[in-house]
Specification:
Oligomer: single chain
Structural class: mainly alpha
Number of domains: 1
Largest sheet: none
Number of helices: 3
Low-confidence stretches: none
Shape: rod-shaped
Strand content: under 5%
Number of strands: 0
Order of helices and strands: HHH
Length: 118
């Protein structure tokens, strides 16, 4: 007999995998992030109910959960990396736009004059 908390944990983990597996548009990203945070909170609440001693069936089921957990960690890291890359791209575009508007803003002006006709 497997504890209900363990089966719910698996279901929540599978939902996390489904959310993080596909490409998410920028418009939907905030909603997806909120949904991911909610699922992670649900898993945190379930973790208190999954304690030893375990039966042999629960141990085998737990090994499957550990494998799923590795996949979730990889997918969440990939999702976070995508967000970081988008933020980096947006910042570089902002800098490029500022340089296009005012190309002489980064010129060093130290007050010296160099005479080239010596």
């Amino acid at each position: 007999m497997i504890r209900p908390a363990m089966t719910v944990w698996r279901d929540v983990t599978e939902k996390l995998l489904a959310l993080t597996s596909g490409e998410v548009s920028e418009e939907q990203r905030d909603a997806v992030i909120l949904h991911i945070e909610g699922l992670l909170d649900d898993r945190d609440k379930l973790q208190a109910h999954i304690v030893a001693p375990f039966t042999t069936g629960e141990e085998a089921f737990g090994k499957e959960l550990v494998a799923l957990e590795d996949d979730v960690q990889k997918k969440l890291a990939w999702f976070t990396n995508q967000i970081r890359m988008d933020i980096s791209d947006a910042q570089s575009k902002k800098g490029t736009m500022k340089n296009y508007i005012n190309p002489y803003s980064n010129v060093a002006r130290d007050g010296t004059f160099y005479d080239t006709k010596q």
